[in-house]
Automatic annotation (TrEMBL):
This is UDP-N-acetylmuramoyl-L-alanyl-D-glutamate--2,6-diaminopimelate ligase. Its main location: cytoplasm. UDP-N-acetyl-alpha-D-muramoyl-L-alanyl-D-glutamate binds at S31, T154, T155, S181, Q187, R189. InterPro entries: Mur-like_cat_sf, Mur_ligase_C, Mur_ligase_C_dom_sf, Mur_ligase_cen, Mur_ligase_N, MurE/MurF_N, UDP-N-AcMur-Glu-dNH2Pim_ligase. The lineage of its organism: Bacteria, Pseudomonadati, Bacteroidota, Flavobacteriia, Flavobacteriales. GO terms for molecular function: ATP binding; magnesium ion binding; UDP-N-acetylmuramoylalanyl-D-glutamate-2,6-diaminopimelate ligase activity. Belongs to the MurCDEF family. MurE subfamily. The keyword Chloroplast does not apply. The keyword NADP does not apply. GO terms for biological process: cell division; cell wall organization; peptidoglycan biosynthetic process; regulation of cell shape. Carboxylation is probably crucial for Mg(2+) binding and, consequently, for the gamma-phosphate positioning of ATP.
Length: 486
């Protein structure tokens, strides 16, 4: 148990009713989890408002309530704290509750539209290979050194983050690499954390349903850099025009990386093959198994980070040459008939374009590229026609299908994608709502040497429709379909 006043240290309080010198158990922002002597923080959400559940939390035994508006009826024996921003208060309280675990390790946040999972995972793998105890908080999983935990968000809520950071402290983890999504920054899931550094990968179209304008989306990402302390580093990709924007108001030490511009860290692609690429980094050569220009950026970002964090350059390059693709990122399988299937998590227009550019650059003859792709339901609708256009323009055959329709109609999502297809490409498009059938059709259409891209779900092992998740794994599906054709 902890003293409420200790948990509230650093939170600016507008009003207090009751005693803060009381012992409390846990902090919760979901009334359904509240038990005897817990603290409930009322967060205003996108669907409902935590303030509506204050009474519920008290009935479940809450000893203290943190809210932006005090309820009319105050119950004796319960402490009510009024704050101006519950998300911020929650972030500070969660960090205090776990004794600020982010201060006891080097926490590096990675933000950007694409590449967060790749960069954080590669950094985790690199630092593990270098012999450190390492933590990872990513879309795919959370790693507390060697122990993995499933996750539901790219950036979990602040209580979950601090719980894992605290576990990392207990076993002596020195570095933790964490994805920081724009939703996470906006909902202050990364506030109250002490970052040793932050990395910006790139910015392109995504989540405009949530952030409304591109400028708001960009400024949300920038907040991660605005909040860095002087002791931290800020590393940005300046080939992206928003790279320098991220650095505008940061107190941190600034570093840049680029393939095309002058920068502190530079790389050049010397050779591209299907099984890897040769890069020149700081006058040294690196053979990497990861392909695509976008991966050259990711590799450069991790090389720069390792250098800034004090790893020896030559040793870093040696270990980097051993790094493998991250699950569901350009993961490929070549069938007995010499058909290549690539599963990639490209779920934004930019990512889809990059992957198709990479695939097209690797074609040696007149092999066909068949793309199976869908767009998520209850997510940014404006990216659908753009992705429909890219898939149809850059492939010989595009098959539009479902990708986590959630509460939307799969036909309607596909229709939104079809709306972006230009007249000359319509004959290249097939729409098959059932993802398994879509993948099987692609495999049937493919001939020797053809390339099938299954985009959008990458490492995901489910398809979500109306709140129900059914097992579904793109890699398994496409492999099975190709193997059964022989
Ligand atoms: C749109 C969004 O981000 N929603 C997140 C948000 O939920 P919300 O705003 O909908 O919450 P709400 O349902 O309105 O409830 C408001 C408050 O009332 C509370 N409540 C509610 C009901 C009740 O009975 N009692 C109660 O106390 C809730 O616990 C909540 O605190 O806060 C929740 C708790 O932290 C998150 O789980 C939830 O993520 C949802 C599930 C989600 O899908 N988020 C996605 C969009 C997301 O965050 N994605 C990013 C990655 C994006 C990227 O690609 O960059 C991520 O970081 O994962
Ligand atoms: N640096 C990059 N620039 C552009 N595209 C990239 C980059 N790195 C990866 N991609 C593409 O974007 C896809 C998603 O990559 P990754 O999972 O690393 O991104 P993310 O930022 O973690 O995404 P999310 O927002 O879903 O967490 C990859 O499958 C690949 O197609
Ligand atoms: N982090 C992204 C992942 C999208 C992946 C795609 N398969 C989908 O479900 O839309 C999001 O939550 O928007
Ligand atoms: Mg990710």
């Amino acid at each position: 148990m902890k003293l409420l006043k200790d948990i509230l240290y650093g939170v600016s309080l507008s009003a207090v009713s009751g005693d803060t010198n009381v012992l409390v158990n846990q902090i919760h922002f979901d009334s359904r989890k509240v038990e005897m002597d817990d603290v409930f923080v009322a967060v205003r959400g996108t669907i409902t408002d935590g303030h509506e559940y204050i009474q519920k939390a008290v009935e479940s035994g809450a000893k203290a309530i943190v809210c932006e508006e005090l309820p009319e009826l105050l119950i004796n024996g319960v402490t009510y704290i009024k704050v101006s921003d519950c998300n911020s208060a929650l972030a500070i309280m969660a960090a205090n509750f776990f004794d600020n675990p982010s201060k006891n390790l080097k926490l590096v946040g990675v933000t950007g539209t694409n590449g967060k999972t790749t960069v954080t995972t590669l950094l985790y793998n690199l630092f593990k290979k270098a012999g450190y105890k390492v933590g990872l908080i990513s879309t795919i999983k959370v790693m507390v050194d060697d122990t993995d935990h499933p996750t539901s968000h790219t950036t979990p809520d602040v209580i979950t983050i601090n719980t894992y950071l605290s576990q990392m402290n207990q076993i002596g983890v020195e570095f933790c690499f964490m994805e920081v999504s724009s939703h996470g920054i906006h909902q202050k899931r990364a506030e109250g954390l002490h970052f040793a550094g932050a990395i910006f990968t790139n910015l392109s179209h995504d989540h405009l349903d949530y952030h409304k304008t591109f400028a708001e989306y960009r400024d949300t990402k920038k907040r991660l850099f605005d909040g860095l302390p002087k002791s931290a580093f800020a590393l940005v990709n300046i080939d992206d025009k928003n790279g320098l924007v991220m650095l505008q108001n940061t107190k941190a030490k600034k570093y840049t990386y680029a393939l095309k511009s002058y920068a502190d860290y530079r790389a050049q692609i010397l050779e591209k093959q299907f099984n890897g690429q040769l890069l020149k980094l700081d006058d040294n050569e690196l053979w990497s198994k990861l392909i695509g220009d976008f991966n050259a950026y990711n590799l450069l970002a991790i090389y720069a980070t390792a250098d800034i964090l004090g790893l020896e350059k030559m040793e870093t390059l040696r270990l980097m040459s051993e790094l493998e693709n991250v699950d569901g990122r350009f993961q490929y399988y070549i069938s007995k008939d010499k058909i290549t299937a690539i599963v990639d998590y490209a779920h934004t227009p930019d990512a889809l374009k990059n992957v198709l550019v990479t695939i097209n650059a690797l074609r040696t003859g007149n092999e066909n590229v068949i793309t199976v792709v869908g767009c998520g339901g209850d997510r940014d609708k404006s990216k659908r026609p753009v992705m429909g256009h890219i898939a149809s323009e850059m492939s010989n055959q595009a098959i539009f299908t479902s990708d986590n329709p959630r509460t939307e109609s799969p036909e309607a999502i596909i229709a939104d994608m079809e709306a972006g297809v230009e007249a000359q490409n319509t004959k290249k498009v097939l729409s098959i709502e059932n993802r398994r059938q879509a993948i099987r059709t692609a495999c049937k259409l493919a001939m020797t040497n053809d390339i099938i891209l299954v985009a959008g779900k990458g490492h995901e092992t489910y398809q979500e429709t109306n709140g129900v998740r059914v097992d579904f794994d793109d890699f398994k599906e496409v492999k099975e379909a190709l193997d059964s054709q022989n």
